Amino acid sequence: MHHFVNFAYLDAGTGSMVIQSVIGIVAGVGLFGRKALSSIRTRAKNKRMDSEKDV
Amino acid sequence: MLPNQLASSYRDPAGFVFDLDGTIYRQINKVAREEFDLFISSGLYDALVAKGLIVSHTEVKDLKKFKPDSNRLAVIKPEPIPFISYPYEWSFPQLRDAALLTLKIQKLALEHGMILKDASAYNVQFIGKKPVFIDTLSFAKYEEGQAWEGYRQFIEHFLIPLAVAHFSTEQALTMLQTYMEGIPLSLAVGLLPKKAKFKKGLLAHVYLHERSQRKHQGSGTKAADAPTRKVSTFALNGLMSSLEASVTALKPPKAATEWGEYYEFTNYGDKAFKDKAKLVDSFLGQLNKKPQVVWDIGANNGEFSEIAAKRGAYVVAWDIDAKAVAANYQKHDKLDGLMLPLVQDVAVPSPAIGWELNERMSLVERGPADAVLALAVIHHLAIGRNMPLPKIASLMNRIGKSIIIEFIPKSDSKVKHLLASRKDIFPDYDIEHFEMAMGAHFKLASKKQISHSERWLYLYTNKKSV
């Protein structure tokens, strides 16, 4: 459990505060996965191009 | 409230917007000292201004001209907004761009160690076709683990209205007039079709969110009892990306509307169209004072509005059809900064709404425009909506100093079409009664028949203006 003291004037809603951490983690993992996949693909592509150049 | 404090600016204790002699200022209160200092010192303000995402401001050094206020830390003068519009007057792509702007700003704020305190659609205004953030006091210091307090507001102000419109009609966005504080989650789950659950992000951001809200409703009568959860920066960034993807995935519905392709199906030829454009331009040129603000109240996709914009006027291009407004908004050229397309049914104009009925201004309160274009509109109001000609003339008098108005007689095929399915109960709908009605409020400055048509174009000027 975590609490912050601030001057918020907006009622964020408890349910919203709870659910956003769950959605955020799931989305964050998805985003991380996509980024990792894209980086692997780019590296593989570069490697392939390099080996084609060597030939 | 101070006498000149804007009626829409009272919720945030950090400050408020006020008007002094026609100039808009923003007061920053002492309670917001830390946040405002960080907003400037972190470089966030400069980064936002450099990217054109927020209205720039200058700090007012001489505070003597303002009434003394012990809460005051500083006063800033923001770049003026030529015309204030509201989310219920925006077309689908305008609301979507406003949503994406909010997320872009949130991402940039997080990079600078700050976070948006809220996510109100009213924090965005349009300068021409460009959305800009106007609330300089919406930023707070971000602390690791902090949840986004504006999350639900973002969903209710942006994602739900866009989703409802996506699955029904763009006209659904006018619901935001009734639900000024956003369409509630509980209502959204009832309004959206079952298939909405399969649309990117909606299951999580709307359905599970609503369930979570319901589950925790009333939990924790004391602040300390309220269940909260730490949201890591990783999760917060994931949340922002997910929101961005969800908003981007929503598109306006494809169904054609009555006015969406109006100019492809007009009943007059190219020559008449060109002559009408020439006359509009000539009438605008005849005005003694060059109009600064022009309202085109049946603008469709902005064909005739452009004539006024080319003369340097700031044109508010109203139309009842959200699809036509969207088409105008998505046309991009050098006139972008001078053209603000908005949705408006002139027969049921935007009322004054909100607290004490003055939080959001009515259409009339935002006028009068220097000139109003009412082209191919009057027959729809008089015959389509049963508005007597004197009533139409009276509204014109309230919204414009000069009026360029087209009269379309009963012999015109468009009027015949309107009368085809109903009894003609409009014996007074003729050119004599039209001129009499307009003459009660205005001075006739010019009158010309549009060549190759039976239509007439009139230039009326306010009796008081010379």
Which helices and strands, and how do they pair?
The complex is a heterodimer of chains A (55) and B (466).
Chain A: H1 14-54
Chain B: E1 15-20, E2 23-29, H1 33-41, H2 44-50, E3 57-59, E4 72-78, H3 92-111, E5 114-116, E6 124-127, E7 130-133, E8 139-141, H4 151-167, H5 185-191, H6 202-216, H7 233-249, H8 270-286, E9 293-296, H9 305-310, E10 314-319, H10 322-330, E11 339-343, E12 369-374, H11 378-384, H12 389-399, E13 400-407, H13 413-420, H14 431-439, E14 442-449, E15 456-462
Parallel strand pairs in B: 9-10, 9-12, 10-11, 12-13
Antiparallel strand pairs in B: 1-2, 2-4, 3-4, 5-8, 6-7, 13-15, 14-15
Helix pairs in contact in B: 3-4, 3-7, 4-6, 5-6, 11-13, 12-14
Total domain units of chain B: 2
Provide the CATH top-level class of the largest domain in chain B.
Alpha Beta
The mean pLDDT of chain B is 93
Look at the structure and name the CATH superfamily of the largest domain in chain B: Vaccinia Virus protein VP39
The tally of beta strands of chain A, per DSSP, is: 0
Task: Note poorly predicted spans of chain B.
Answer: none
Uncertain segments of chain A: 1-7
Overall geometry of chain B comes to globular
Briefly note the structural class of the backbone of chain A: mainly alpha
Strand order of the largest sheet of chain B: 11-10-9-12-13-15-14
Percent helix of chain A: over 70%
Radius of gyration of chain B (Å): 24 Å
The CA-CA distance between the termini of chain A, in Å, is 60 Å
DSSP summary, beta strand count of chain B: 15
Cα shape of chain A: rod-shaped
Helix content of chain B: 25-40%
* Percent of residues in beta strands of chain B: 15-25%
